Amino acid sequence: MVEILNEHYDHPAFPQPADRNALVWRYQDFDKFASLVTTGRLYMRRADLFNKDQFEGTTPQGEIDYWAQRAADAATPQERAAIEHSRAELAEYAEHFRRNYFVNCWNMAPDENVAMWERYTSGPESVVIRSRYSTFLKQFHFGVTMSGK
């Protein structure tokens, strides 16, 4: 059996932080925190339902750059055309699949951020979860969940 992905695989769409022990923060209303504690499950919102971020679930710039470089490095014009055609088809598929991508956003920063409290919570009945990126990653099944900056 050939292992295609392993936990050290760096997907171009999910760049990893230089410091895997960097702090990550999740700002949320208390009811979402209570649900996490009660169910032991992290709420994941469907990517196409993010009203504040129309680009959530779309093709990340890192992936676009990766495929552009692959096309630029192609050995022949035919190979370049095939790469560009395949990338265009993948982008079209990705747009249709946004209803099947589920996202949970965290902030990577060394300190707490007042602007995040204001943007992602609705009042004083709110909490912030602080963890380390490496600890956060260990909570998920690699290959099912992808994480990155």
Radius of gyration: 18 Å
Spatial strand order of the main sheet = 4-1-5
Q: What does the overall shape look like?
A: elongated
Summarize model confidence as the mean pLDDT: 85
Concise summary:
With about 150 residues, the chain is an alpha+beta fold. The chain contains five helices and five strands, in the order βαβααββαβα.
Essential attributes:
149 residues; alpha+beta; three-stranded antiparallel beta sheet; two-stranded antiparallel ribbon; 5 helices; 13% strand; disordered N terminus
Please provide a written account of the structure.
The protein is of the alpha+beta class and 149 residues long. It has five helices and five strands. The strands form two sheets. Strands 4-1-5 form a three-stranded antiparallel sheet. Helix 2 (61-72) runs antiparallel to helix 3. The longest helix has 21 residues, at 77-97. The radius of gyration is 18 Å and the shape is elongated. The chain starts with 22 loop residues before the first strand and ends in a 12-residue tail after the last helix.
Chain-wise SSE layout:
Layout lengths: L22 E7 H10 L5 E2 L14 H12 L4 H21 L4 E2 L3 E2 L5 H7 L5 E7 H5 L12
Antiparallel strand pairs: 1-4, 1-5, 2-3
